[in-house]
Design brief:
Blueprint (H helix, E strand, L loop, with lengths): L9 H9 L3 E4 L5 H14 L7 H11 L3 E6 L11 E12 L3 E13 L8 H15 L4 E5 L12 E2 L2 E8 L13 E4 L2 H16 L10 H7 L13 E7 L5 E12 L2 E14 L2 H12 L4 E9 L15 E8 L1 E5 L2 H7 L6 E8 L7 E7 L5 E5 L9 E6 H7 L6 H6 L4 E2 L4 H9 L12
Parallel strand pairs: 4-5, 11-12, 15-18
Antiparallel strand pairs: 1-2, 2-3, 3-4, 5-14, 6-14, 7-12, 7-13, 8-9, 9-10, 10-11, 15-16, 16-17, 18-19
Bound molecules: coenzyme A (COA).
Amino acid sequence: MSFADAPIDADSFARLDAGGLRLGLVDTSDRDAFAAWVQAEMRGFHAGALAEKYIDEQRQRIAYRRTTAVWDDSTTDAATPVATVSSWPTPLTLPGDTSVSGWAISSVTVAPTHQRRGIARALLEAELRTADSLGVPLAILTVSEATIYSRFGFSPTTMTADLEIDTRRASWTGPAASGRVQFISLEQLNEVGRDVAERARRAVPGEIELDDHLWGRLIGLLGDEKGESKNLRAVIYHDADGQPQGFALYRLKGDPADFSSHTATVEHLRTVTDDAYAGLWRYLLELPLVATVSAPLRTVDEPLVWQVSDPRAVRAVRRRDHLWARILDVTAALEARRYAAPGRIALDISDPLGFAHGRVLVSIDDSGTATVSPLDGSAPADAASLALSVNELGALYLGGVSARTLVRAGRITELRAGSADAVDAAFHSPVTPWLSSWF
Ligand SMILES: CC(C)(COP(=O)(O)OP(=O)(O)OC[C@H]1O[C@@H](n2cnc3c(N)ncnc32)[C@H](O)[C@@H]1OP(=O)(O)O)[C@@H](O)C(=O)NCCC(=O)NCCS
């Protein structure tokens, strides 16, 4: 049995069944069933219907995912689900050059005709129980609204910034890159870029491995999002030895009033080395006839700010949460990452859904490796000690949110003075966590 056909959660099935609804897995080898599911998902996100000619392409790429639906057999179009969700385990990079398997949840939609009767709750709880039963230690997602998922134990764990750069004020002062930037077709990028993306993924906590669908969508090779229709350009960076170490995808849009003031929108820029980073950013900032470079979904800690003559030319026009995490198995999740400082930390974790509920002692050795054990009685005298909910644990997990801030916010209680600082010293990630795409 693979994750995709693990049994449907009995509790959620019963709850929905009591309301006349049917929770089940979609047979993705059945083209019509898959098409109905995809169109329900598109409708759920207020998108137009996916053109018939793209259905097979999409099915080829996401059929392997666990594809779940809720049907209402009393509706006139009973074949089209009234709710959708898909999920799959994927490597998530953690601090300390490690990865953990995260249960990625996507395509969460409930038809407006059926909203606010507990369908999303049934789906989400089922996903969490399924992931837990399969031994996946945490669930992850990106969100349309920041108001939905806290109630299920998720919290933001990476932040992101949308940048706008005034190229006329941003002369390049960073290092000169040793390699070169070349145009590449999207088809060529499809061949050589995926390895670059994967190598870059492993260096940044918060990044996930891209499956065929996410990769194809990212580089503009899929369905209605095809790159040509958006004037999407791709460039690749080869280092001095001719090895590909980064790529950028960008779109150009003219200013009708001034041909010298195009805007370049950087859809994606991914680099393995600092050299490639410098080479590609310099290329983008020096594009002719471009006054503004807009770069959504960047890390909140861009070296770029330090590589231009006027740091105020790089403005974060929006900063917000991006990757949300929900710890299910505290021991497996906390033991999977590495820590920046040794020490012992007692955690008193509350979790209304039960998965992570309990008290544990996290013992971190000099190499930054943690052992997590259940804690009975009082915490050892030398241990930091805190009480927090599973939400705060998810926020802290990648080291991008500070425990001291969450104490100040009243979200974490220090059971011993100074405990937040001990957590911050240990959980700190040398690389600021970041997820550079949507899923
Ligand atoms: C968001 C969505 C999935 C919710 O589905 P739903 O079946 O109506 O949700 P439920 O009835 O199960 O609600 C569960 C809980 O979430 C709350 N909730 C639901 N949608 C919410 C929203 N948009 N904002 C805040 N709270 C929300 C409900 O009030 C309920 O709270 P409670 O359990 O504390 O009483 C649905 O409205 C939808 O498909 N929206 C459009 C697509 C979308 O944004 N999907 C999310 C992708 S990340």
